[in-house]
Amino acid sequence: MSSVPDPAGRVESLRRLAGFREEFYGCLTRRADALFELTDAVLCADGPVDSLVGLSLTAEHRRGHGALYDAVNHGRLELARLRRAVAALPVPLAADGRIVLAVDVSAWLRREAHTSPDRLYCHVTGQTRAQDQRVPGWPYSIVAALETGATSWTALLDAVRLGPADDETAVSCAQVREVVDRLITAGHWREGDPPILIVTDSGYDSARLTHDLRDLPVEILGRLRSSRVMRLPAPARTPTTIGRPRHHGPELRLSDETRTTWPQPTHHTHTATSRYGTAQTRTWNRVHPRLTRRAAWISHTGPLPILEGTLLRLTVDRVPSGQNPKPIWLWCSTPDLTAAQVDLLWQAYLRRFDLEHTFRLLKQTLGWTRPRLRDPNAADTWTWLILTAHTQLRLARGLTDDLHRPWERPADPTRPERLSPARVRRGFRNLRPKTSHPAQAPKPTRPGPGRPPGSPNRHRAPRHDVGKTIHRARNQADQQKREG
């Protein structure tokens, strides 16, 4: 180590990284030493992680490959404590100083794992010539905090595996509620701060999230499919009108190319960007979806709520892929927005695509989906090890040197925090000696005798079907059939 003292910020970052490593080791309740060294092997391996057994060859993993597999299959984590430790770390903020959380599902594909239980048909794209495809695997719902500006960094906060008997909407609501409660407990949000923004894609029911999380200081921003039909506010009731009062106004069809159903927008903004050209937004305040007793609302008791919000239509001149840009429809749970708030919202939604860079880093570099594990509980353990490794990379941001390849562009030395996650991992091996190492050295032992040579396997693993185990009613007719 250099004799020149480090700046105060660097010392504080090193202290925070060492403290998190100590807390992570305390969360390991079984096979703690092997799991901790396995996480360090993921962080210090040369190049992408191609196989699980290959991590046993790194210098940071001082045990054999048998201990490695035993730790993944039989190790245990105290997830509640680890989740609190991750939530207590600094959380990035958006341009307006608020916390922005993105919720998305990423699948661990397991096509030929017929003996692995709890597999579901996961929606994937780009696997074959077909645009959409259903592949068996383990879907994980992941919540991450987004940053501002052009970056590929996100702060992973939680991961939950969706099971065959789970309702995706209910699981997402419970997961977001727990994450927000942990952030409030950690002091990241206080009374008087702007509400936490929850950004979702078109696969989520924004209205259901708004209704179920209405008691939390959150604001929902979700993308809508272009085939949706929204409703305008109901017209004022005159004293001479008889009959039941109207709850919904005229229709607003998003796919109406003639724009005959579109009223005059509340705001129309133009913003010049270097990446997308001119971004135009049109907004309509107090627009709500007309809810029916189907899907997520089939078991709702009492009258269906009217959830008013702001409808946004975003159009740009170009996209980085060179394709023809299509308009993006967004719906925010806040009914009245100003023009300045609208510009901040659509920019926050575009930052949601940074989560795709994180998924690619987890799968292609850290080797999240490389192990061929049979037990889904072992898959959960390995998933949290990967999330913990990514968290340590985020804490080491700005502490490592830029070990770029000769053909790569060097980073700005005045802004070390701009290093990508892959480059921070490349220099983590040199940073590791400066942090804490709570794992103990392995004890000398001999391997077990194992199965005698030539003896067959007398206990074959059972095969499991793929798909949901509980049929959920999608409409009133299905509900009545189920009730008899």
Automatic annotation (TrEMBL):
Stretches assigned to the Transposase IS701-like DDE domain: 23-289
Positions with biased composition (Pro residues): 444-455
**Which InterPro entries does this chain map to?**
IS701-like_DDE_dom, RNaseH-like_sf
Query: What's in the keyword line of the UniProt record?
Result: Endonuclease, Hydrolase, Nuclease
Any one Pfam family match given in the protein's UniProt record, by short name: DDE_5
Compositional bias per record (Basic and acidic residues), positions renumbered to this chain: 248-259, 404-420
- Respond yes or no to whether keyword Repeat is given for this record: no
Q: Where is this region: Disordered?
A: 235-280, 404-484
Query: Does the keyword section mention Hydrolase?
Result: yes
Quote the biased-composition stretches of kind Basic residues, using this chain's numbering: 423-435
As one GO molecular function, the record gives:
endonuclease activity
Q: Can you name this protein?
A: DDE superfamily endonuclease
Annotated organism of origin: Micromonospora rhizosphaerae
